[in-house]
Each structure stands twice: as C-alpha cells, then as structure tokens.
Amino acid sequence: MKSVYDRLRLMAALIAVVLLAGCQILPEERPALRGTGDLGLIIERASGSVLVVDTTEKAVLDRVEGLGNLSHASVVYSRDGRYGYVFGRDGGLTKVDLLTQTIERRIVQAGNSIGGAISQDGQYLAVSNYEPGGVRVFDSETLEQVADIPANYEGQDGETRQSKTVGLVDAPGNRFVFSLFDAGEIWVLDMKNSEPEVTRHEAGAQPYDALITGQGRWYVAGLFGEDGLSMVDLWNPEQGARHVLSDYGRDGERLPVYKMPHLEGWAIAGDRAFVPAVGGHEVLEVAMDSWDLAGRIPVHGQPVFVMASPTHRQIWVSFAHPNNDVVQVIDPQTSEIIRTLEPGEAVLHMEFSPRGETVWISARDSNRVTVYDTRTMEKITTLKAKKPSGIFFTSRAHRLGL
C-alpha cells in the first residue's frame, strides 16, 4: 500500500504532465517559417505607409504605417533581405522588418533627403541630403551615425557653402559615389577603413541624378546645366571624370521638361544602353564601347524610366505628365515598339520580379498596382494601394547600385 507521500508525489507528476501538454505548441499553431527572397515593399507616398508584398502569390501581406513623408522615397535591403531601409523625403530613415511587418527602428537624420544606398558588405547606410546637404553614414544594425560628410564648396563670392547631394550609389570596395548639384562635382567616399576618405572629381554644370553600371565600373551623372553626361571610370579613377554624349539632353527643339528622367532607370541590353531623352519624346540608343549616340526611338511622351527586363529582351518605358497613363515596350533587337499598355493614371514606377516573369507597375492616381506577365504582356492582377509610387523587391539586396 502506497503512503500518503507517494500518492502526493504521483499526483504532482500527473499535474506536471498535464500542464506541459497544455503548454505544448501544436504544429498548426507554430508560426510559418519563410524566406524573404520573394518579398518587397511598395511605397504609399500620400499616407506615409508601405505595403509588404509577396511576388510569388502576387499579393499584399500587410501595411506598415508611420514612416513620415514618402513623396520621393526609396528602399534598399539588408544582405539577408529581412530588413528594408526606407529613405523618406523628410530626412527619415526607417528600418522595416519584412517578416514581422513592423518598424524595427526609425530616425530623422536631416531636414530634406533624396535617397540612399547600402555598402557592399551591408554594414553601412549612406543618405544623400538636400538640407543641410552632404552625406551622412549610419550603422545598418543600430542606425547610429558613423560619419558626416559635408559637401562643402567655394561659391563664386568666395564663401564656403554646402551643396545638395544627388545620385548616391554604392560601389565595390565599400565605396559610395554621389554628385554635388550646386558644386558640379562627383565625390567617391571610401568606407573601407575607420576614417572615411573622399576623392573629388570635376563633373560639369548641375549634375541632377546618376547611375552605376551593373558591374560597378562606370558612374554616370546627368547634367541639368548643360547637355551631355559626366562619367567616372571607377576601375581607373585616377583618370578623373570625362564628358560624354554631348548631344544627349535638350538639344534641337527645347521642349518644356515636365519631369527629369531617372538615370537609375537606364536599360542596358547587349552592347547598347537605352537612355531617356531630356525633354524629348525619344529613347536614345548609346553604343557602350564608345559612349556615342547610335540611334533614336520615337515614343509616346517624355520618358522617365527606361528599364530592361532581367532577360534584356524587352525595354519598358514610362513617361512624364501629361502622358503618364501609358507604358510602352521596346524590342531591343529591332528598336521597335511592340506593345502599348495603360496601367492607370499617373504611372510612377516599375519593378521586375527577381527572374523577370512579371513586372509590377504603380499608378498613383488610380490607387493601384498592376502586375503583368512579361511573356504575354497581359495583365495578371491588380492590387489596391494608397497613392502608390516606388516598388522595391528584395532581389535588390544582391545587386550593385540599387
């Protein structure tokens, strides 16, 4: 016969088993594990929010709010694709967790900023500022500032001023490259050591935007104050900047420029680049071996983005107001327009899925994003969004200059 003590011990053991069973997480209750390779963010510019989207399911997962002024917002990603860093026009820098769909951290680092970049090793974030000017660099984990690079230059009156900075991109070797709009210079910021190093190049009048080619060699800045482009060979930076494409710009009939084209939207297919003309209703073809103008393609309006699909078999073109309800597709082999689409009113941005089977197009005034099949160029679906603008997928985490 068991003692009272033994019976109490048995009862305690049974209670413990029951409690442990009650605390056990059943398989259907466990949070689903997933990667981030097919996720992305869509900017909702008017409401200070972003949509977290799934490019496989072609669906919106959630909305994250409280990101401030997103009127000219852009996004870069951590190396693992979990975090999106959103650069707001109000100087805000927000770290968004795509898995939890929440804000991890947020700071306001300046009064007016125009975009940013993440270093090759993913350690640093650089932000390009209009006010107060210059570039500031932050730790990507904590968002603590690690460097402040004032874009100082000497004005015509001999006074020292600080320039607005534009065209900020990442480059190989933990470098950032950017242009000084007011000073007419291109700076290369080297962050490989504890002390940042800056190399300066004369660029030309009022560089307004820039790009870096996919292999990280050529940094090309568009010039607002003169025709042509300024280019630095980052493999041979000691050669300085050189002026190319003197006939690129508002040559011939000088039409009003409703929106300056984004150079980051340049399309490179084969041995040619397809470039938006400034103020003209043309896409320009540029020979990549000589950087000479090789042809002109008449299009629907003033191009803003001219983007190549990941396969380089199609060139997709969006336009400035008042012709911004249309997107045209060019065959780079024939230089002919093969399709004209109408995704909605005020098309602002396009983004290809990681392997290019779809393209997502935002239409701000129609409050929607349309997803097209790039093979058939037929609409697959539309997603509701509040005044959508930029679309940024996590595949950007593994590409230079985006």
How would you sum up this structure, described in words?
This protein is mostly beta strands and 402 residues long. The protein has one helix at 4-23, and strands at residues 39-44, 49-54, 59-65, 74-77, 83-87, 92-97, 102-108, 112-118, 124-131, 135-139, 145-149, 152-154, 160-162, 165-171, 175-180, 185-190, 197-202, 207-212, 218-223, 229-233, 241-244, 267-269, 272-276, 282-287, 292-298, 303-308, 315-319, 327-331, 336-341, 347-352, 358-363, 368-373, 379-384, 388-393. The strands form nine sheets. The protein has a four-stranded antiparallel beta sheet, with no helix packed on it. A four-stranded antiparallel beta sheet has the order 4-5-6-7, with no helix packed on it. Strand 31 and strand 32 form a beta hairpin.
In angstroms, what separates the terminal alpha carbons?
Answer: 78 Å
Poorly predicted sequence stretches spanning 5 or more consecutive residues: 17-21
Give the strand order of the largest sheet, numbering strands 1, 2, ... along the chain: 3-2-1-34
Category by helix and strand content: mainly beta
Overall spatial form: globular
Seen as an oligomer or otherwise, the chain set is: single chain
Total number of helices? 1
Summarize the structure.
5% of the residues lie in helices and 48% in strands.
Give me some keywords for this one.
globular, mainly beta, 4-stranded antiparallel beta sheet, 1 helix, 5% helix, single chain, 48% strand, 34 strands, 402 residues
